[in-house]
Amino acid sequence: MNIDIISKFPDFQRIPLERDLTEKITNFGSDNLYPQRMKQVMLVSPLAKGAVSLMASFIRGDGFEKGDKIVNSLNQTANDILQLISEDQAFYNGYGLHVNSTGLGNTQEIQFVDFENIRLGLANKSGNINDVRVSINWEQDQNQLPDDNINAERYVLYDEAKAGSEAILTGKGMIMYVTPRKNTYPLSVIDSIIETCQADHELALFELGNIVNGFLSMSVFKYPSGGDTEEEEEALRQKLNGLKGAKNANSVIVASIDEDFEGASNLVEAIPANNNDSLFINTTMNVKNRILQSFSLPASLLGMLPPNSLFTAQQIADDYTYTNLRTKDTRNQIERIFNEKLGLNVGKIIPNSFESSQMATPNGTTT
């Protein structure tokens, strides 16, 4: 008996690990622009953008217990840095920090580095990666020959055991590259729904196009004529194109017709507006549901509830509790890095809490 296997693994990699020997990096995607492409898609999807922002808000909570501590020469506080890394963590599943240390290996200052600007260096014979390149110009024309416009700066990956010696030898600082798997490019949070996020954008374009390019409840007044010349017909076509859009709703079009035309007796004819909304209701709901399911976020915190539903204080409080649990592991990881690895002693991250007068107890406190 022969048995055929009808399922198979995908025949592509979401992030192909190609080596760039010129820049001495491991490309982040086939074009080395994976994070930039993901960000562009996220920014044009209203729901995905809102979901990422909500995740970032719950990751940083109300900030560190000692978050007012200045951590760099730019007078940024630990909470300032926390806000920046929470946004990258919520979207890219990773973040980067530039760390300067003293000769004794103690952290002197930290600065935020945009995650999309960091590229991992080449792995050695043991498969280990020891450095990264940082540039704000990875988007240069990929068809051109390599040039100095990238200006990629090399940094050693952060290692607390080597921080002191690095400070003495170079003083350049090190890059802390935080990802779920050490020194591996992570998938963006929207990677599995990138087509859905684009569909969210396309649906908005359809609505705009339906209004801008459609005739909205117009009427046509027709009068007999001996026939139009080609010039007159072209002028009419241009005039009709100018009558599209919301500002021309309920307008009246005056048009000449041939006296022998069958509909010549019907001088006034209504042009109904196109109603394609019903065709897209299911698509819109599927897109929204798929994005929400991917983020595993409560719809109420994004201002979305089923028709005829009401927000209640208890429901929102429960959703706060759930989302705090959803982001707890990420907050714990950030706390360990700041307090243990970097030794900044900024305390724990205070989770978001929901307070409402509707939930007040007789003594005035909230439940």
List the helices and strands and how they pair.
Blueprint lengths: L18 E2 L4 E2 L7 H10 L2 H15 L17 H15 L2 E7 L5 E7 L4 E3 L10 E4 L18 E5 L5 H7 L4 E5 L15 H19 L5 E8 L4 H12 L10 E7 L9 E4 L5 H19 L17 H14 L1 H14 L26
Parallel strand pairs: 7-8, 9-10
Antiparallel strand pairs: 1-2, 3-4, 3-8, 5-6, 6-7, 9-11
Architecture overview:
There is one protein chain. α2 (46-60) packs across α3, α2 packs parallel to α7 and α5 packs antiparallel against α7. The strands form three sheets. A six-stranded mixed β-sheet has the order 4-3-8-7-6-5. A hairpin with a 5-residue loop joins β3 and β4 (107-113). The protein contains nine helices and eleven strands. The radius of gyration is 29 Å and the shape is elongated. Among the domains are: 19-189, no CATH class; 215-271, no CATH class. By secondary structure, the chain is an alpha+beta fold.
